[in-house]
User: Fold these one by one.
Assistant:
Number 1:
Amino acid sequence: MQQRRIGDTTVSAIGLGAMPLSTKEDRPGPEEAEAVVHAALDSGVTLIDTADAYARDEGEFGHNEELVARALRSYGSAPDVLVATKGGHTRRGSDWELDGSPAYLRRACEASLRRLGVDAIDLYQFHRPDPATPWEESMGALRELADAGLVRTVGISNADVAQIDVARSIVGPALVSVQNQFSPGWRHSRDELAHCAGHGLAFLPWSPFGGVSAAGSLDAAAPAFAEVAEELGVSVYRVTLAWHLAQADVVVPIPGASRAGSIQDSAAAAEVELTPEQLARLDA
């Protein structure tokens, strides 16, 4: 599989967004969920993205982190994987809320460390800006986590260009990535993607197929992608991820999967070559 860089670490060009393993109403059972993670590893995936808030509700907060940790422990050999998680989202019942305060982020990071069973988190990402906490304070908290050795590198999510620059100035070289929504139907983060490419920050598109509810109708929603897929004899999902990779060499899409076959198909996207003419059609 193609490889990309996140900071000083080399990872697979396609990652696994583990969210559907915990948040979907029809989510797989524990054994099937572990099999999805194992299938990703077997396919050469070396980046797994999770979050403490990836759960059905408040009562099972941390479920996804525990699932990922268990799947990595049960894999046949010790995998060389970068595990990225997030903090800053909270849950009240099944609702999503925010807390970007330094005190909360410290507690959240320490809890994630325990659930993942590690001494330091490979990539710790601030999940989403909290209007109740100045962005600078949240970034200062991330810098403190890195300085304390609790996290090896830092990322931010759902950030605009100005917020990226503030994060760069406060977090310093520990800041290595930005995770924003980006897909055929949601291209509003083009400026942030270009900004990341200009500053050597990895750009991790979340919901690269448009989200859990939209992924099943991607053929109809993105007809140009379906046409190219038919020309190449591959799935529309492979074409979509190949298009992501063609945007810049800092892009590492993290498609979600709840079945082993889905992540195997996604991983194969790293080998799809789009012609300039096909890429122009998809960009249009």
Number 2:
Amino acid sequence: MDLNHLAAFVAVARAGSFTAAAAALGQPKSTVSRSVAALEADLGQRLVLRTTRSVGLSTAGAALLERVAGPISALRAAADELPGADGEPAGLLRLTTTSDFAEAFLSGLVARYLARYPAVRVELRLTERVVDLNAEGVDLAVRFLMGPLAPTGDAGLVARRVGESRVGLFAAPAWVARRGAPRQLSELRAEDLVLHRAVAERRPLFGAAGDLPRDAPPRVMVDEMSFVRGALAQGVGVGVLPTFLAAPEVEAGRLVPVLPKLSSPAGAVVLLMPGGRQPLPKVRAFVDLFVGSFRGW
């Protein structure tokens, strides 16, 4: 039995489509389809049920997936984790973070990492979802945590606090011209606010300096900081942003600080890794590069 055919079958079963499986494997859709067909021919069983709208598994296909998915993943992981010559970083590094953080900081860092270690490949999962590193085979998570660093809630993980990022209030120059620059927090109204959900739920954000209005919901509440930044630049209202995310917009003149003397050490930048083993060279090298770059941020 061809292991490549088995890997193609597992990818299709997990993705629920040949197109998505082909993208995940980096292969043409026709190649994946032929691999699954060849596996079905070898076993003499229909494994995948194809319709015009979806792909499902037959009883035999579901039974096969249950038995081979784990071993296939383990084999793939073992191949990815092989070190290069003389212990040089090599193989596939799987990272996860949010799209906001990746855009602001991680893309340039990944480029330098790849240039320095040509035997490494990188797979990025950009999501607000808290990825289960152990279950999903991810090597490293970069997370921006609001508030003090608390237990991660992820069993078997090692957390490393890299640094602290501050947040402040920002708005578009047009909003300030129209609304007027507030002189203190108490002048803001809930209807002025565009907030990330984690910010909206934190009390108090600015400590002794005061709090954002809580008498009504903010005008906009969302789960991505990049949306907050974009809405503020369009003049929708005033909102809280990490300074690293706001800085390019301020430099470009699309945002200005509001109550600039107010800032809060509201976020910890944390690296999370699966515990229970020494980090592989590819992980150690990325962590070292990340920490060294963040210090000057």
Number 3:
Amino acid sequence: MRWKSLILGCALAFVPAFAASAKEPEVAAQHIVHAHPALWIAKDHDTTIYLFGTVHLLKPEIQWFEGNVRKAFDKSQDVVLEVAEEETGTQGKLMQRALDIDGPTITSRLPEASRARYLAALESHGLAPILFERVKPWFAAITLSVLPLRNHGYDPASGADHRIKLMAKEAGKTLIGLETSDQQIGFFESLPDPLQIQMLDETLNELPQLGDTIGNMIAAWSAGEPEKLAALMNDTLEVNPELEQRLLTDRNARWADWITARMEKPGTVFMAVGAGHLAGASSVQALLAQRGIDTTLVKRIE
């Protein structure tokens, strides 16, 4: 699984804190593209849980909050997100924990062959290299993954998580968070330093193809093709197993346990997590099957 894949669909919901605006940008009607992302359902006699895979950054012209997704959302009393807390203050918290004033500089820790590429990548986005010499490698990796996407037109304010949270508040639905922003930052912050450096080095390797790769993944997501999305996300080199375990597998297991417990209570729930968590062999659905809970792709909601 590529690191860019984790940012797109498995990485963390605090990513939009980098630059999410207050409301989604308006788009001219002639530029609108209608998407039909996949939706799953787990159901028993008195409980229905919809599972929807989100993308944390999307282009404003991609319209996805309609059809089955909108109907499932409207039917639900509870809306479950990776993080449901207010985004206010997250950016400051993120920056505070990203700094590493007393540690060695990033360029001194990167492989020699990657140092010039790191400095050039920062400068290409108007970032002063001297300011990024004293941040932790995980923060530099996320920054250099998100900013190029912004240049390709992907906007956190148009991301599915952000939109669902706004609509849930507007509709007066109960918002439930599976994690907190503190926990999510901690997933990265606690990574061993060599793994953080590997993550940053992999990011630098992926930058030239970032636009094409993300475009293909968004196309698969928009077309409701989870198998194709899983194949794209697992193409080429795999992320270090420890990173994949922390950011994907362990979290999927905890969320499968949450769903299993929630199935014991009546009601209808709309659960939206990164699309990468609902694709592949270790997906939430696969782990639910191990717990005796079947999920099916929704074809049509009346």
Number 4:
Amino acid sequence: MTDRPRLTPAIADVRRAVRESWDASGVVAGDLVLVACSGGPDSLALAAAVAFEAPRAGVSAGAVIVEHGIQEVTKQVAVETAGVLEALGLAPVQIAHVSVGKDGGPEAAARTARYEALDEAAAALDAKVIMLGHTLDDQAETVMLGLARGSGPRALNGMAVHAARYLRPLLGIRRSTTLAFCEDSGLEPWIDPQNSEDRFTRVRVRQAVLPMLELELGPGVTEALARTADLIRDDSEYLDELALAAYDRVAKAGATSMVLEVAELETLPAAIRGRVILRALEVFGATFSRTHVLAVNDLIDNWHGQKELALPGVRVVRTGSQITLKTTKTLKPGAC
């Protein structure tokens, strides 16, 4: 690793993305930012760029390395990555060892554990943002997976540059650029062998599906998918705002139940009504699909005295002009 790498296009692009993300998200002098770093090329390039830009902006910059314990080698990778980040000037640098559950499959469970660890670190250190190294390629893969699964606008929205405390400055940067950044900077990233294992759906999309589309349809498919996410997100966020206002009118929550007024639901456009139903279901804590939303919607459009619905963690029944969602658990505070 060289102390003062020459300024190459890749280094300039990543550093610029960091500066612009801070300007857009309100990061100012005196704030602490944390970089989530696995030691891979994307997050290592981001960490190096942050380490360069932070003192020039008067920003404090640290890092969190989440070690999932899934592979034996990652314990040593975490220690070595911490040393690299400290040498770059980041402080504090923390290693968070997590246990990965099984809910939703290995990828989803690892993601859940990772974000929980990052949230805990940010809260403990009072960090303004947590910076993630997702690239334009990651965005395209997310959209393609959403299309394949028929997941609807939430998945097709992709990832936002700034969402809550998370900041993704590299969503406009290709993975090839982060690799070039590391090479130009004399950094040696860790290449996770699991990123090449085709038992993971995302890996198959990355290694087979997107290259095939580029070959058959011509270059630019990856950029087009990422651009689609940006366009859909604008519309989806507006519809979400309308749905939230409608939900506040329609839903009345008690300790263990929620009542939805059918007359109000009947006046809502389909795009808004579906979002209101989904929000009501999600108060009960489970993960719900389009099929569940449509089943509840049938109690509005096609009600003929049918029995209650037994959905994950909640029972739904229509009585006259009201639909009641019931559970044996106490609802989350602020559910309605």
